[in-house]
Amino acid sequence: MDTTVLPRLDPDDLRRRPAAYRPPRRRRIRPLSTVVVIILSLGLALVLAGHRWLPDVGEWTLALESFLPWLGLLSLLLLIPATRSRSFLAWTAWLVPVVVWCFVFVPAILPGGATATGQGSLTVATQNLQGYNGSLSASSALIAQDADIVALQEMKSAEALNELAAKYPYQQQAGTVALLSKFPFKDSESLALNGFASLRSLHATVQTPSGEVSVYVVHGASVSGGDHTARDAMLSDLQGRVSQDTSSRLLVLGDFNAAPSDRVMDGFNQQLQEKLASNGGFGFSWPSKFPATRPDHILSKGLNIKESSVLAPIGSDHLGLAGSFTF
């Protein structure tokens, strides 16, 4: 009987042989994570793009619009369920609020100022003092700007005005706000905005060497417990006055108690321009220890923005703002 001799198998040879082909397991889409990402992403996009149409429910709406740019962080949180979902649809939905955020905020926060043209120049600064009683000397971040025009809010005493009289001989005060200028005033007056007569707003026509500039200084009414009715009425009143001002060059500066994304600022944004920070960013000015929003503004019309910046702390809970213009 014939016998067949089988070849001897080398153990090393077996180890070198490829394993049997196994088709890769198909990753399963997790429907719950997909649904969560789609709902939250689209909801976030709607809030970012249409927050002005949300019902005004006082403190909640005020906080939402004051800190609106920070909602972009929610997109980072949504990365977790988007990754777990393993769904193309979820990733597409996640991109929607990211694109909306970029569309809403990126144009305003890009670095750089407008092209500086014109023979005239003007530098301005604004600072909420919050009862600050320190010396506003040339070493302070505010006065070190050597601005032509300085607006002050929450000024509890006239000591700052007296101290700066030599540097700024032309001054106008209305309650706790003041305007200091190196140039004379053609006219100046306190403004009664929504009943806040001679307390929180003033107007002056400043005669600069290159022409007149109409200047408004304002400190928006305080917001208490989410009730911003008085502030809204006051700022709406000022918007109406600005729209009727026929001056070719105009400035509105101070503490508005309203962020750029607050719906009450729409009336200003339609008439005036603002550059948040020439080096880029949101130019947050409050609170000074950890700036998270921007209630302070320098708005202009008929002036070319050359540069804008946020000043270093001087002891107030607000950071000051500075801007330079040509015309």
Total of domains: 2
CATH homologous superfamily (4th level) name of the largest domain? Endonuclease/exonuclease/phosphatase
β-sheet strand percentage: 15-25%
Shape: elongated
Low-confidence stretches: none
Oligomer: single chain
Q: Could you characterize the architecture of this molecule?
A:
- Helices cover 29% and strands 22% of the residues.
- By secondary structure, it is an alpha+beta fold.
- The protein has 2 domains: 31-109, no CATH class; 121-326, Deoxyribonuclease I, Chain A (4-Layer Sandwich).
- A 6-stranded mixed beta sheet has the order 3-4-2-1-11-10, with no helix packed on it. Strands 5-6-7-8-9 form a 5-stranded mixed beta sheet, with no helix packed on it.
- Strand 7, helix 7 and strand 8 (250-255) form a beta-alpha-beta unit.
- The longest helix has 22 residues, at 88-109.
- The model has no long low-confidence stretch (mean pLDDT 88).
Please summarize what this structure is.
About 30% of the residues lie in helices and about 20% in strands. With about 325 residues, it is an alpha+beta fold.
Main features:
8 helices, single chain, 2 domains, 327 residues, six-stranded mixed β-sheet, elongated, Deoxyribonuclease I, Chain A, five-stranded mixed β-sheet, alpha+beta
